[in-house]
TrEMBL record:
Species in which this protein is naturally found: Nonomuraea bangladeshensis
Record InterPro entries: Gfo/Idh/MocA_oxidrdct_glycsds, GFO_IDH_MocA-like_dom, NAD(P)-bd_dom_sf
UniProt superkingdom: Bacteria
Ranges where the GFO/IDH/MocA-like oxidoreductase domain occurs: 132-228
Protein name: Gfo/Idh/MocA family oxidoreductase
Gene3D superfamilies given in the database record: Dihydrodipicolinate Reductase, domain 2 (3.30.360.10), NAD(P)-binding Rossmann-like Domain (3.40.50.720)
Coiled-coil region list: none
Short name of one Pfam family: GFO_IDH_MocA_C3
Length: 294
């Protein structure tokens, strides 16, 4: 099996490669020499391609795409031309123009883009009786202090990577849509800088969501946090149930990275994406509307 890692723009493909390298030969393309050198030091047997076109040439079985958000539509278009299964590291779009560009692409049923948390063992088997649900809350704790130093400034820029509201908010929205479905709309959103004053976006945020059947939910984004954790709280008539996702002693497994790559490898084997693109698009639309509201 041969898998291309097209771009190393975030930390995720480095983690993905640790799982993929147990199953496949790796081809890597990344224009930033420092990022590429870091990857090659960990995976010296990976073949290095000089361009995206070169990475996609020859025999391949699948592609993991991780480029800055403004570059996703064009890069994904090139991947789609190959017909290969593709995992697009989150978020696939961070503003309206990017989402509109994705809407013009012929995205097939072996394209997956998702927060890895959907596949976390603590969450992936969760089912709810929505008739019993009154309201839901998702809480995202993930520190964004690295951005305050200027690292990966494109991620922190609202018109490029979406900032904290989009890049961290996707974890909460993804979990809620996984539980309650894609028939959701944004009811309101707000963000603020409470600690990291040099950010281009925000370090805290909140969204209010409503499903077509009347279920309401909130997403809390806490980008100032000493620890990383994610939770979903289900409020019911007879009490409250909380699901907690933490890294523990095996972050690759416990946060869902490993199972996400396993789902991608199933696509390489011919299976459709476990997350329909229509669902991914609903999540992206909520995030972009939240970004526009702030």
């Amino acid at each position: 099996m041969r898998i291309a890692l097209a771009g190393l723009a975030t930390s995720h493909p480095y983690t993905d490669a640790r799982t993929l390298s147990r199953h496949a030969e790796l081809v890597v393309w990344e224009p930033d020499p420092e990022r590429l050198a870091r990857f090659s030091a960990e995976h010296p047997r990976a073949k290095v391609a000089g361009s995206l076109e070169e990475a996609l040439a020859g025999r391949l079985d699948g592609v993991v795409l991780t480029v800055p958000n403004p570059q996703v539509p064009q890069a994904l278009a090139q991947v789609l031309e190959t017909g290969l299964p593709c995992f697009v590291n989150k978020p696939a779009a961070a503003d309206r123009a990017q989402l509109d560009a994705l809407d013009r692409l012929p995205i097939h049923d072996r394209v997956l883009s998702s927060s890895v948390l959907r596949f976390a063992p603590a969450f992936s088997g969760t089912r709810v009786d929505r008739d019993e649900v009154l309201a839901v809350r998702a809480t995202v704790r993930h520190d964004v202090g690295l951005w305050a130093t200027g690292y990966n400034a494109w991620q922190d820029t609202p018109g490029e990577g979406g900032g904290t509201m989009v890049t961290m908010g996707i974890h909460g929205v993804e979990l809620l849509v996984a539980l309650l479905g894609p028939d959701v709309r944004l009811a309101g959103a707000a963000g603020a800088k409470r600690h990291y004053t040099t950010l281009r976006s925000e370090d805290t945020g909140v969204m209010a969501l409503r499903w077509d059947d009347g279920v309401t939910a909130t997403v809390e984004i806490l980008g100032v946090s000493e620890s990383e954790s994610y939770s979903v709280t289900l409020h019911k008539r007879d009490g409250t149930e909380t699901i907690v996702i933490e890294s523990g002693d095996d972050p690759v497994r416990n946060l869902g990275y490993e199972a996400t790559i396993e789902a991608f490898l199933a696509m390489v084997g011919g299976a459709p994406s476990p997350v329909p693109w229509s669902e991914t698009r609903a999540i992206l639309d909520v995030l972009i509307r939240a970004r526009e509201a702030c």
